[in-house]
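Entry 12.
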Amino acid sequence: MVFAMEETTFSDEESRDINNKKFWDELHQSFQLTIELLHDFAKEHGIDLNAIDYEEEKKKNRERRKKAKENPIAKAANEYSKMVTEWFEQHEGLFEEKQNVLMKQFELNIGNPQAATASVVDAVEVIRWYQDQIWVKLMRALNGEEFDIEMEKDEVVEELPKDSDGSAKVALIGIDRSIGAWGELQKHFADHSDSIVNILIYLSRLRKSIERRFPLARRFVRPGFDQEM
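Predicted 3D structure (C-alpha coordinates):
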Protein backbone atom coordinates (compact mmCIF):
# COMPACT_ATOMS: atom_id res chain seq x y z
CA MET A 1 0.00 0.00 0.00
CA VAL A 2 2.84 2.38 0.82
CA PHE A 3 4.47 1.68 -2.54
CA ALA A 4 1.18 2.21 -4.39
CA MET A 5 0.54 5.47 -2.53
CA GLU A 6 4.01 6.81 -3.25
CA GLU A 7 3.61 5.99 -6.94
CA THR A 8 0.40 8.01 -7.18
CA THR A 9 0.71 10.64 -4.44
CA PHE A 10 4.40 11.52 -4.88
CA SER A 11 4.51 11.00 -8.63
CA ASP A 12 6.08 14.31 -9.72
CA GLU A 13 9.12 16.37 -8.73
CA GLU A 14 7.10 19.00 -6.86
CA SER A 15 5.54 16.41 -4.56
CA ARG A 16 8.97 14.91 -3.84
CA ASP A 17 10.66 18.24 -3.03
CA ILE A 18 10.67 18.83 0.77
CA ASN A 19 11.01 22.59 0.15
CA ASN A 20 7.80 22.63 -1.84
CA LYS A 21 4.37 23.19 -0.24
CA LYS A 22 2.88 20.38 -2.34
CA PHE A 23 5.17 17.85 -0.65
CA TRP A 24 3.90 18.77 2.82
CA ASP A 25 0.27 18.87 1.66
CA GLU A 26 0.57 15.38 0.18
CA LEU A 27 2.37 14.11 3.29
CA HIS A 28 -0.37 15.55 5.50
CA GLN A 29 -3.02 13.74 3.46
CA SER A 30 -1.01 10.53 3.67
CA PHE A 31 -0.90 10.77 7.48
CA GLN A 32 -4.63 11.49 7.60
CA LEU A 33 -5.36 8.40 5.52
CA THR A 34 -3.11 6.33 7.79
CA ILE A 35 -4.98 7.52 10.87
CA GLU A 36 -8.33 6.71 9.24
CA LEU A 37 -7.18 3.21 8.30
CA LEU A 38 -5.88 2.64 11.83
CA HIS A 39 -9.19 3.68 13.37
CA ASP A 40 -11.14 1.53 10.90
CA PHE A 41 -8.98 -1.50 11.74
CA ALA A 42 -9.36 -0.89 15.48
CA LYS A 43 -13.14 -0.53 15.17
CA GLU A 44 -13.35 -3.72 13.10
CA HIS A 45 -11.59 -5.67 15.85
CA GLY A 46 -13.41 -4.06 18.74
CA ILE A 47 -10.49 -1.95 19.94
CA ASP A 48 -11.23 1.39 21.59
CA LEU A 49 -8.15 3.55 20.92
CA ASN A 50 -9.44 6.21 23.32
CA ALA A 51 -9.44 3.67 26.16
CA ILE A 52 -5.70 2.99 25.85
CA ASP A 53 -3.56 4.27 28.72
CA TYR A 54 -0.70 5.74 26.69
CA GLU A 55 1.40 6.61 29.72
CA GLU A 56 1.17 3.00 30.88
CA GLU A 57 2.11 1.81 27.39
CA LYS A 58 5.13 4.14 27.37
CA LYS A 59 6.19 2.68 30.70
CA LYS A 60 5.86 -0.86 29.33
CA ASN A 61 7.91 0.08 26.28
CA ARG A 62 10.68 1.52 28.47
CA GLU A 63 10.71 -1.64 30.57
CA ARG A 64 10.82 -3.87 27.48
CA ARG A 65 13.69 -1.86 26.01
CA LYS A 66 15.64 -1.99 29.28
CA LYS A 67 15.15 -5.75 29.46
CA ALA A 68 16.24 -6.12 25.82
CA LYS A 69 19.43 -4.11 26.45
CA GLU A 70 20.34 -6.41 29.32
CA ASN A 71 19.84 -9.53 27.21
CA PRO A 72 23.15 -11.41 26.62
CA ILE A 73 22.51 -11.50 22.85
CA ALA A 74 22.07 -7.73 22.67
CA LYS A 75 25.18 -7.21 24.77
CA ALA A 76 27.14 -9.54 22.49
CA ALA A 77 25.98 -7.64 19.39
CA ASN A 78 26.96 -4.33 20.98
CA GLU A 79 30.35 -5.80 21.87
CA TYR A 80 30.84 -6.87 18.24
CA SER A 81 30.26 -3.27 17.12
CA LYS A 82 33.06 -2.16 19.47
CA MET A 83 35.32 -4.95 18.18
CA VAL A 84 34.88 -3.70 14.62
CA THR A 85 35.82 -0.13 15.57
CA GLU A 86 38.87 -1.29 17.50
CA TRP A 87 40.04 -3.59 14.69
CA PHE A 88 39.95 -0.86 12.06
CA GLU A 89 41.67 1.60 14.39
CA GLN A 90 44.45 -0.88 15.16
CA HIS A 91 44.91 -1.93 11.54
CA GLU A 92 44.52 1.40 9.80
CA GLY A 93 48.05 1.17 8.40
CA LEU A 94 47.24 -2.12 6.66
CA PHE A 95 44.98 -0.41 4.18
CA GLU A 96 47.62 2.18 3.31
CA GLU A 97 50.14 -0.62 2.73
CA LYS A 98 47.63 -2.52 0.61
CA GLN A 99 46.93 0.58 -1.42
CA ASN A 100 50.64 1.08 -2.13
CA VAL A 101 51.02 -2.55 -3.21
CA LEU A 102 48.03 -2.37 -5.52
CA MET A 103 49.27 0.92 -7.01
CA LYS A 104 52.60 -0.75 -7.80
CA GLN A 105 50.82 -3.67 -9.44
CA PHE A 106 48.78 -1.25 -11.51
CA GLU A 107 51.90 0.66 -12.64
CA LEU A 108 53.71 -2.57 -13.52
CA ASN A 109 50.60 -4.03 -15.14
CA ILE A 110 50.71 -7.22 -13.07
CA GLY A 111 47.96 -9.09 -11.25
CA ASN A 112 44.47 -7.65 -11.08
CA PRO A 113 44.69 -4.65 -8.75
CA GLN A 114 41.29 -3.28 -9.83
CA ALA A 115 39.49 -6.44 -8.73
CA ALA A 116 41.46 -6.59 -5.48
CA THR A 117 40.64 -2.95 -4.71
CA ALA A 118 36.95 -3.53 -5.36
CA SER A 119 37.01 -6.62 -3.14
CA VAL A 120 38.56 -4.76 -0.20
CA VAL A 121 36.29 -1.72 -0.58
CA ASP A 122 33.15 -3.87 -0.80
CA ALA A 123 34.15 -5.92 2.24
CA VAL A 124 34.79 -2.82 4.35
CA GLU A 125 31.50 -1.24 3.27
CA VAL A 126 29.53 -4.37 4.19
CA ILE A 127 31.21 -4.67 7.59
CA ARG A 128 30.67 -1.01 8.40
CA TRP A 129 27.07 -1.06 7.15
CA TYR A 130 26.05 -3.92 9.43
CA GLN A 131 28.36 -3.05 12.33
CA ASP A 132 25.63 -1.26 14.31
CA GLN A 133 22.61 -2.49 12.38
CA ILE A 134 22.94 -6.00 13.81
CA TRP A 135 22.53 -4.61 17.34
CA VAL A 136 19.68 -2.30 16.29
CA LYS A 137 17.71 -5.12 14.66
CA LEU A 138 18.35 -7.45 17.57
CA MET A 139 17.09 -4.82 19.99
CA ARG A 140 13.93 -4.53 17.93
CA ALA A 141 13.55 -8.32 17.88
CA LEU A 142 14.05 -8.69 21.64
CA ASN A 143 11.92 -5.65 22.42
CA GLY A 144 9.13 -6.95 20.21
CA GLU A 145 9.33 -10.51 21.49
CA GLU A 146 7.27 -9.84 24.61
CA PHE A 147 4.89 -7.62 22.69
CA ASP A 148 4.31 -10.46 20.21
CA ILE A 149 3.52 -12.81 23.09
CA GLU A 150 0.95 -10.32 24.42
CA MET A 151 -0.62 -9.95 20.97
CA GLU A 152 -0.95 -13.71 20.52
CA LYS A 153 -4.09 -13.45 22.67
CA ASP A 154 -5.76 -11.95 19.61
CA GLU A 155 -6.82 -14.72 17.19
CA VAL A 156 -6.27 -12.52 14.12
CA VAL A 157 -2.81 -11.35 15.18
CA GLU A 158 -1.81 -14.87 16.26
CA GLU A 159 -1.90 -16.04 12.65
CA LEU A 160 0.32 -13.20 11.40
CA PRO A 161 4.12 -13.47 11.07
CA LYS A 162 5.92 -12.07 14.12
CA ASP A 163 7.74 -8.77 13.80
CA SER A 164 10.38 -10.09 16.21
CA ASP A 165 11.20 -12.93 13.79
CA GLY A 166 11.46 -10.47 10.90
CA SER A 167 13.87 -8.23 12.81
CA ALA A 168 15.91 -11.24 13.94
CA LYS A 169 16.14 -12.39 10.33
CA VAL A 170 17.58 -9.02 9.25
CA ALA A 171 20.16 -9.30 12.04
CA LEU A 172 21.06 -12.81 10.86
CA ILE A 173 21.41 -11.62 7.27
CA GLY A 174 23.71 -8.88 8.53
CA ILE A 175 25.84 -11.47 10.32
CA ASP A 176 25.91 -13.75 7.26
CA ARG A 177 27.09 -10.93 5.03
CA SER A 178 29.57 -9.67 7.63
CA ILE A 179 31.12 -13.14 7.95
CA GLY A 180 31.53 -13.23 4.17
CA ALA A 181 33.11 -9.76 4.18
CA TRP A 182 35.55 -10.61 6.97
CA GLY A 183 36.47 -13.72 4.99
CA GLU A 184 37.39 -11.50 2.04
CA LEU A 185 39.59 -9.29 4.22
CA GLN A 186 41.24 -12.40 5.62
CA LYS A 187 42.36 -13.30 2.07
CA HIS A 188 43.90 -9.88 1.54
CA PHE A 189 45.54 -9.59 4.98
CA ALA A 190 46.82 -13.14 5.56
CA ASP A 191 49.49 -11.95 8.02
CA HIS A 192 46.75 -10.68 10.31
CA SER A 193 44.47 -13.68 9.88
CA ASP A 194 44.37 -14.52 13.60
CA SER A 195 42.64 -11.28 14.60
CA ILE A 196 40.05 -11.78 11.86
CA VAL A 197 39.50 -15.42 12.84
CA ASN A 198 38.66 -14.31 16.36
CA ILE A 199 35.98 -12.00 14.99
CA LEU A 200 34.63 -14.74 12.70
CA ILE A 201 34.34 -17.13 15.65
CA TYR A 202 32.60 -14.44 17.70
CA LEU A 203 30.09 -13.76 14.91
CA SER A 204 29.42 -17.47 14.38
CA ARG A 205 28.61 -17.91 18.07
CA LEU A 206 26.36 -14.85 18.03
CA ARG A 207 24.55 -16.23 14.98
CA LYS A 208 23.90 -19.55 16.72
CA SER A 209 22.58 -17.76 19.80
CA ILE A 210 20.13 -15.76 17.70
CA GLU A 211 18.97 -18.84 15.80
CA ARG A 212 18.30 -20.62 19.09
CA ARG A 213 16.38 -17.64 20.48
CA PHE A 214 14.40 -17.07 17.27
CA PRO A 215 14.11 -20.52 15.61
CA LEU A 216 11.54 -19.30 13.06
CA ALA A 217 13.45 -16.19 12.00
CA ARG A 218 15.00 -17.73 8.89
CA ARG A 219 11.53 -18.70 7.63
CA PHE A 220 10.16 -15.17 7.91
CA VAL A 221 9.17 -13.90 4.46
CA ARG A 222 9.84 -10.23 3.78
CA PRO A 223 7.53 -8.93 1.01
CA GLY A 224 9.59 -7.36 -1.75
CA PHE A 225 12.82 -8.99 -0.50
CA ASP A 226 12.20 -12.71 -0.08
CA GLN A 227 9.46 -12.99 -2.69
CA GLU A 228 8.49 -11.47 -6.01
CA MET A 229 5.89 -8.72 -5.88
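Annotation: The radius of gyration is 23 Å. Residues 53-213 form one domain.
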